[in-house]
Amino acid sequence: MSALERAIANPEPVPGLDAESPVAGLARRSVGGIEVLAQSVSAVAPAGAALTIPAIIAAVTGSASLLPMLVAAGVTLLVASTITQFSRRMAAPGGVSAYIARGLGSTAALIGGVAQLIGYGFVAMFALAGTVYTTLSLADFVAPSGVASDVATGGWAVTLMVLFGALALWILVRGIRRSARVTLVVEVVSVGAIALLTVAFLVVLWATDAPRMANRTFAVFDPTGIDGPELLVATALAMTALVGFESASTLGGEAKRPLLAIPRAIVWTVFVSAGLYLLTGYAQLAGGDAADLRGGDGFFPVDGLTAGLGMPWLGAVLELSIAASLFACLIASATAMTRVLFALSREGLLPRALGRTRRRSGTPVAAVALTMLLVTAVPAVSVLLGAQIWPTMQWLLLGAATGYLVAYFLACVAAPVFLWRIGESGWRSTLVAAAGAIAVVVILVAYLAVEWTGARAVAAWVIVGVLGVTVLLAAWRAAFALRHPRIRGVYDVPTIADVWGGRRGGA
């Protein structure tokens, strides 16, 4: 008998294991690395962001410059590198809130958890509203009727919201493997289509007028084309196109090899999203004057650009890609939100029903139902009260960006403390985390300062008010810590069934 055969026949006892993981009930180790990547990429919704944010930046700064997008990509990479310090060491369905708990404790984790729920929830609402808007716009393209330009009446818009919300609910209840595959297929098709069409678009532009494109390229990459305050505000707006990259961390209890797959997904999502973002941003900014981009108030400023070049069909294909990407974003963001609700329920902060899962699929059904109810109701009620979809999407995006940035800041502050506590701190990781924290807080303050004086001031005050109440609640909980559950940062651990020779704790 060989040594291997002897080890299999009489395994060495491994004591100290439990029979059940703290996240038991989820479909553990069922989602592959590619599907984990699709979760984060879909939550970012690169197709929709890449085709809209550059025009918004041009409208704010008055110039066509890629510099804010480059700076935003750099800041996002700093934050992503910091968050992977946690995801390499723990597989937590609570994601960033669990990481914050392990570094800064329960009080900060409560604030981060609420900020995280605001981020995921508002992006899911934004994605649902955007899916409806693109559908109405495509309907106008096929059979012009003006329905998309008069969405304040609410009839078609609310009906489509309910239908898309019900479809997303059905996909989510079916289980993480099915929903992950849906987002994977949809996102690959939409991102691939936009990348190919953008490259073709640039080839046509360069072939048509190479000297003009050379001049425009120089202007787009000229760092002197935008001043300091404008750069700060534009970077804050550009950052909103990349938030959500960390949502793969909420699949910590369900991913195969989570300590390897999740960090890779987080970093690669930043590269994929930022790459598409910069490519399409360059195509829009170099392909048309800033004034052309600023001229449209709608969701698709590229429509006028493609129509002006005699390619209106290209605008329709891009809109279809945006619709697909936003629906995938809806599923991915709702998935992340349900896992955070699940984790907070297991911590004892939310009702136990939210922490229960469906035996067959491992889905936290109550958390999914609550998530989709909120995600569908908020934009639908807004439209029924007379708001148009595009303004509604703008204040939803404001709320999402604020929630994400607060959570990112706390995670960057928590990382060096966490690494120091486990004896693995280093000057490089500390420097990256500090740079990320400073950059994020500056961007957040600049973003809110602009919004407080703009058309979405009420939304800004509401979001800040919610976070302020959360801070007061966290302080109150800290004062009575012995009487209330604490957020410990629940995460998946090996069980007896996972280890050859596993034994119950202490045996």
Main sheet?
A: 2 strands, parallel
Percent range for β-strand residues: under 5%
Number of helices: 18
User: Kindly state the mean pLDDT as a whole number?
Assistant: 81
How many domains is the backbone divided into?
1
CATH superfamily: Amino acid/polyamine transporter I
Instruction: Report low-confidence residues grouped into runs of 5 or more.
Output: 149-153, 290-299
What topology emerges from the helices and strands here?
Blueprint lengths: L2 H7 L4 E4 L15 H12 L1 H16 L5 H21 L8 H9 L1 H37 L12 H19 L2 H33 L1 H11 L7 H12 L18 H30 L2 H5 L7 H7 L3 H35 L18 H20 L4 H33 L5 H26 L4 H23 L22 E3 L3
Parallel strand pairs: 1-2
Explain briefly what this protein structure is:
This protein is an all-alpha fold and 507 residues long. It is 70% helix and 1% strand. The protein is globular, with a radius of gyration of 23 Å.
